[in-house]
Amino acid sequence: MSKRENLLYRLAEVVAGGDGIKVIKCLIDNGSMRDDELALALGLKPNVVRRILYQFAENSIVTVQRFRDEKTGWYYFKWMVQPDQVELYLEDQRRKLLRRLKERLQYEKSHEFYSCPKGCLRLTFEEAVEKNFTCSGCGASLQYDDNKKVISRLEVKIRELSEERH
Ligand SMILES: [Zn+2]
Questions:
Q1: CA nearest neighbour of 12 among 66, 89, 64
Q2: CB neighbours (10 Å) of residue 117?
Q3: Ligand 1: centre distance to CA 115 (Å)
Q4: CA distances from 54 to 50, 51, 57, 80 (A)
Q5: Which residues contact 18 (CB under 8 A, 6 or more apart)?
Q6: How far from 30 is each of 8, 22, 79, CA to CA, in Å?
């Protein structure tokens, strides 16, 4: 499975859960399909499939095209994956996450932390002073919390995300 497909499945799952992944996989395998064909192929109820497709359409994951049946004169719709939009969405998500991680890194670098040895809480130095270096959860003494590891984990993650362009 390509990295892009993998991201697409992850996105499908976030939007519509496990059935969402099945729908996307079916569309990738078959190119474009009608909603009733999808329902039949996947053994899902047509209204379930339609709801998933609408959710995908709202998030620009799929697009729909209208066709006319020559014999009956009726219109029908075919759904397909819209890869460009998916990549734009993923790129947007990546940027947002990167921004949050950089803010967090800045916060970690500019503060000293104290935490409860039993894991109840973690406070900045200023907050710990206010609490008299005592845990408000269990009464234990707060201890200096070296955040070098937190910082290096954040830096690794930021570097990975910075290199991951679509
Ligand atoms: Zn505690």
A1: 89
A2: 12
A3: 8
A4: 6, 5, 5, 12
A5: none
A6: 16, 12, 10
pLDDT at position 90 is 76
Q: Name the nearest CA neighbour of 52 among 25, 30, 29.
A: 25
Give me the amino acid identity at 99. Answer: R
What is the 61 CA–ligand 1 centroid distance (Å)? 45
C-alpha 129 – ligand 1 centre gap (Å): 15
Please give the Cα distance from 83 to 94 (Å, whole number): 16
Tell me the residue length of the chain: 166
Q: From CA 5, how far away is CA 59, in angstroms rounded?
A: 16
**Sequential pLDDT tens for the chain (166 residues):** 666 778 788 888 989 999 999 999 999 889 899 999 999 999 999 999 999 999 999 988 899 999 998 999 999 999 999 877 667 777 888 888 999 999 999 999 999 999 999 999 999 999 999 999 999 999 999 999 999 999 999 999 999 989 876 4
